Amino acid sequence: MMNSLQDWPEPIVRVQSLSESGLSMIPDRYVKPLSDRPSSNRPENGDANIPIIDLTGLTDDETELSRSTMDRISSACRDWGFFQVVNHGVSPGLMDQARETWRSFFHLPMEIKQAYANSPKTYEGYGSRLGIEKGAILDWSDYYYLHYLPLTLKDYNKWPGSPDYCREVIDEYGKELVKLGGRIMKFLSINLGLDESHLQNAFGGENIGACVRVNFYPKCPQPDLTLGLSSHSDPGGLTILLPDPEVPGLQVRKDDRWITVKPARHAFIVNIGDQIQVLSNANYKSVEHRVIVNSGVERLSLAFFYNPKSDIPIKPIRELVSADKPALYPPMTFDEYRLFIRLNGPKGKSQVESLKSPRCH
Ligand SMILES: O=C(O)CCC(=O)C(=O)O
Asked: The Fe2OG dioxygenase domain covers which part of the protein (predicted)?
């Protein structure tokens, strides 16, 4: 297994270089089968959006505003698996700085970026594909992936050295996002009827993992034939996404439609990952999402993954298991779990579904 993760099955092509070469047709290996193309589904309801939740009212006191905000978070977790948060406590200036720092990185000369080229062993660094299946149809994006926590995995040498303030900005951003992640974990825990630190403790308490994936979606001459990121659910705990404020692209599955997220100003997009689906015994669902691209303008997003400690077994929380609702998933560590996506790439929700105990079908 480990050997098969040593290297990519084919030479890596940077999507940004393809885009900048000015080609008018995309190469075949980016052309999706008809059923996966952006327009293959029922047209979306143009006004629909994921819930936008203002966290201002969330105080420790049991005020009405506080209760109604908690109820809105609860419904969003059950009905959508996704919501946007505003007034979340992270400074808008830091959000803009983080995004623009990464934009500067992606606009550096290719030789500089290539020094950080990644391998499928840890995925850390500058990458252009997920999964190592030879001949796979690829997504129209490049990315940068790095570990922020635990400290034993944090390695500045694998973080960009330029722009020269890049590492400092990532550190500052990471610190704020760990704080926000911890707060959201409390809300979810209380809403599940648990003690406020129960979910966090199930993640390993202070010893969580945290990673960043910066997605760069270059302009695409034939956006109707491909996707920037194929449909997937996030394998980790919680994802806190900083979207591109100017360019929509993220689509969330709602029943049999794809809803395009309209980002609110200085909002984060929060979504439930597979590990919380498992811990909550499917009270909360990790929902499939994908990214569409366009011919006019590039798009950049920062995904912050707030994950359980990677070597502890994750299984449905005892309080959420009953005779009526038996445990839907067997225990599995996050290390074991994420090998699937590292080998197979984004594949809808096939992994978490395949884990379900047979007696529950
Ligand atoms: O670019 C986006 O808006 C979404 C990115 C995403 O789904 C991911 O990084 O897992």
From this structure: 207-308
Contact status, residue 174 vs residue 212, Cβ threshold 8 Å: yes
Structure tokens at 290: 């994908």
Residue 125 lies in a domain: yes
As for how many domains the chain has, the answer is: 1
Tens of each residue's pLDDT in the chain, 361 residues: 445 678 999 999 999 999 999 999 999 999 999 999 998 665 666 789 999 999 998 877 778 889 999 999 999 999 999 999 999 999 999 999 999 999 999 999 999 999 999 999 999 999 999 999 999 999 999 999 999 999 999 999 999 999 999 999 999 999 999 999 999 999 999 999 999 999 999 999 999 999 999 999 999 999 999 999 999 999 999 999 999 999 999 999 999 899 999 999 999 999 999 999 999 999 999 999 999 999 999 999 999 999 999 999 999 999 999 999 999 999 999 999 988 778 877 888 877 887 776 544 3
Domain assignment present for residue 68? The answer is yes
Structure tokens at 96: 């803009």
d(CA 128, CA 94): 27
How remote is the CA of residue 322 from the centroid of ligand 1, in Å?
A: 35
Is 361 inside a domain boundary? no
Question: Domain span at residue 15?
Answer: 2-353
Residue with CA at minimum distance from ligand 1 atom 9? 303
CATH number for 282: 2.60.120.330
Is the residue at 135 inside a domain? yes
Q: Which of 177, 227, 229 to mutate to test the pocket of ligand 1 (most atoms within 8 A of CB)?
A: 229
How many Å lie between the centroid of ligand 1 and the Cα of residue 234? 9
- Which residues, listed in sequence order, are joined to residue 229 by a DSSP beta bridge? 291
Long-range contact pairs involving 170-173 (C-beta distance under 8 Å, separation at least 24): 170/98, 170/101, 170/146, 170/212, 172/94, 173/94, 173/95, 173/98, 173/302, 173/304
CA of residue 167 to ligand 1 center, whole Å: 22
Residue nearest (by alpha carbon) to ligand 1 atom 3: 250
